[in-house]
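Sequence in, structure out. Go.
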Amino acid sequence: MHRARNTEIQNGVISLTSHFHINQAIEKQLKICGYKSNVDVVALYLARQGLRSIPSLSQFRRLRYLWINNNKIQELTFLIKNYYLTELYLNNNELTDISGALKHLCSLQILFLHNNELKKLDKTVKELKGMISLQTLNLFHNPLEYDPDYRLYVIYFLPSVQLLDRKLVTQKERESALNLYNPKRAWVMQSVAFGKRADTSLGTTVGPGRCTQQARRPIMPSGQEFGNNTNRVPFEDPEDAVLVRAMTRSLMEFSSVDWNKVATSQERRLENKAEEPLEKLTVQFR
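Output:
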């Protein structure tokens, strides 16, 4: 029994020795920072302590900054009550899965998970989707980074991230991610132009390199018209009917004029000459 107590982890249960080590590290930090009570603690530094597991940190309900990097952590259940965290440093540990451990941390802005053993890209990203304030994310040096579309996948499903793996997310990367994971939305966004003329007819590409495939035109069987045959769909592909109806909707039109070039009534009387036609810019979209 005495040997079991002196072991760090025995059958998955944190031993007294491990508890004592962690509590010592926490008490040391409290003294350094001058915190008088648990409720005052907003930052906690537990990096490089050789920790394999950590008891619940729920007593630090206002904790915002937490460093647990460079340990041997394998699970994150100790964070279940720390809702106010904005910066979390979990890099250089032994994490293989974070499912169910971080999704409640909706205030996170910085998250370091690099140099772990995370393998499932979809499960990892799913856990982070609710973090609408997340701006800086590190996932490099995990097995999941070998997914061929790893970076675009993260950029598309975590749109708030501005800095991924120490590299700024570019607008070009966002467009590539949109084209890859939501091509229909990308086509709609490219066909609606604001502030300039754009041909949005089916089969037309808008902008250089933005639409690589020509849109398919609806094909109507010969002799078929709407309402003439109730037993057959008038189009070979039912989606074609939806496209045709969408393209024949009423248009919205906006026009603008450079009013600096328009003469006032006084100027027209003084100059006493014919008024020149105005240059008008018109934009139409559905």
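Check: The two ends are 76 Å apart (CA to CA). Residues 1-17, 193-215, 223-233 have pLDDT under 50 and may be disordered.
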